[in-house]
Design a protein that fits this description.
Shape: globular
Oligomer: single chain
Distance between the termini: 44 Å
Structural class: alpha+beta
Number of strands: 20
Number of helices: 13
CATH topology of the largest domain: Vanillyl-alcohol Oxidase, Chain A, domain 3
Helix content: 25-40%
Length: 467
């Protein structure tokens, strides 16, 4: 590890590729990257920032060296957007701050704070929560910039809708506050721009919600694979009018203790009493198709238990290839997704359908995020051995090729622009976003969207058919 001094900041912690020992550099480059399918991309240096001053100093160093800046919050992006050739990578893992204003139900958190860290404190000390990422170790930075498909998104809306302000270090190294009235274009972009945001968020100002007094409760129905169509048709039919504090998901996965692929339909409700929870979940219990392998009704649950389950489904030290699509509302969704759900290439892989109605049917606030449908579908292809790389990636590619014609777009968070591009925003939002990027970062100092060859630069993504 080498240390360097800048006129703006003494003792900035920098690991330079050409002078650090190999193990130190490699740990700084990918040690905090969740996906163990490591990229062959190599930053000039990694700055381990622990303050806003460090972030500003790192940007000024990049200006001095005439190179780009990349940013890592939680290290959970499947495509590893933070690791870029010939860049200075600002790793925010050591920059963790959280302040809570209980009276006004607000939190101020740095980007590397994870959903589990945030909610662990909010729930235990204040009886509050924030609908962060489902995986416990996802950092707030990437999650919120992409929009934030958080807990109960189908009813509570996108997590980025609860962002009241962001503090940002610009491509020139200046610290600015962004709100609906201060630097409103950057505030607009911060809610849905994803990895193309033309600055570095140093703090999110978040609106909180009470943690349900009754905690979480869940009902689950596990069906054999031959009942896939029946189970899927059923859950789609009951979703539109279902309780508005209940998250609904259908998952295809292999059973832990057998080689049988099964279909889980899960309802997680967040209510203030057991009776309210029972009333919320009873419709599913009364209308479920017969033939479950296993089932449970209104079981006591918690956010902590859900984090444990999510962590188990998304294990560390594994290789990942993910993709997703919003399926057209007029499509025969179970038919379109049948191969995706019934031909998983590895025992640890899974596919999900996530109910978005009624959130998908309402007018969104004025923000960059603008792509959604009733049906969110994603593949999480998980494996351990490098020898399976080609087979698992090919399976994802082949499935998405079949699904594309029935898709209206995709969610940034589960995408890899190097492999496939589609629509990520409404056309007008995409044009506005790319103009904001050029205004705030005309030289492309901040690494933007990682496409094939990393050549998008200041032009950004084409958003499917959009120029």
């Amino acid at each position: 590890m080498t240390m360097t001094a800048l006129s703006t900041k003494k003792d900035l912690q920098i690991i330079w590729r050409d002078s650090a020992d190999k193990a130190t550099y490699e740990d700084a480059r990918v040690g905090r990257v969740f996906n163990h399918r490591r990229p062959h991309r190599f930053p000039l240096a990694v700055v381990k920032a622990s303050s806003v001053d460090d972030i500003q100093a790192a940007v000024k160093l990049a200006i001095e060296k005439n190179c780009r800046v990349a940013v890592r919050s939680g290290g959970h992006s499947w495509a590893v957007w933070s690791v870029r050739d010939q860049s200075i990578l600002i790793d925010l893992g050591n920059y963790k701050e959280l302040e809570v204003d209980e009276e006004n139900r607000l939190a101020r958190a740095t980007p590397s704070v994870t959903g589990k860290e945030l909610n662990g404190r909010l729930i235990s000390e204040y009886g509050l929560m924030f609908p962060g990422g489902h995986c416990p170790d996802v950092g707030l930075g990437g999650f919120l910039l992409q929009g934030g498909m958080g807990w109960n998104c189908r009813n509570w809306g996108w997590a980025c809708e609860r962002v009241r302000a962001v503090d940002v270090v610009t491509a020139r190294g200046e610290l600015v506050r962004c709100t609906p009235v201060e630097n409103p274009d950057l505030y607009w972009a911060a809610r849905g721009a994803g990895p193309g945001f033309p600055g570095i968020v140093t703090k999110f100002h978040l609106e909180l919600t009470p943690y349900p007094a009754g905690g979480f409760r869940s009902s689950g129905y596990i069906y054999p694979r031959h009942m896939y169509r029946e189970a899927f048709d059923w859950v789609i039919s009951i979703t539109p009018g279902f309780d508005q504090d209940t998250e609904i998901v259908l998952v295809s996965k292999y059973a832990e203790d057998s080689d049988e692929l099964c279909i889980l339909v899960l309802f997680v409700t967040m209510k203030n009493s057991p009776k309210e929870a029972e009333n919320a979940l009873i419709t599913a219990q009364e209308t479920r198709p017969k033939g479950c392998i296993d089932e449970w009704f209104c079981q006591i649950d918690s956010l902590e238990n859900q984090y444990i389950a999510q962590g188990k489904a998304n294990p560390d030290h594994h290789r990942y290839c993910c993709d997703n699509a919003y399926i057209d509302n007029s499509a025969n969704v179970p038919a379109v997704l049948e191969d995706a759900f019934l031909t998983l290439p590895h025992r640890k892989a899974f596919a999900i359908w996530y109910a978005m109605n009624p959130c998908s049917r309402r007018k969104l606030p004025d923000m960059a995020l603008s792509m959604q449908s009733d049906h969110y579908f994603a593949l999480y292809t998980v494996w351990e051995d490098e020898v399976d790389d080609e087979r698992c990636q090919k399976w994802v590619h082949d499935i998405m090729k079949k699904v594309e014609s029935h898709s209206v777009g995709a969610y940034l968070g589960d995408s890899d622009f190097q492999v496939r591009q589609t629509r990520y925003w409404a056309d007008e939002n995409a044009k506005r976003l790319m103009n904001i990027r050029r205004k705030w970062d005309p030289q492309g100092r901040i690494c933007g969207y990682l496409d094939a060859g990393d050549v998008s630069g200041v032009d950004g993504l084409s958003n499917g058919s959009s120029p």
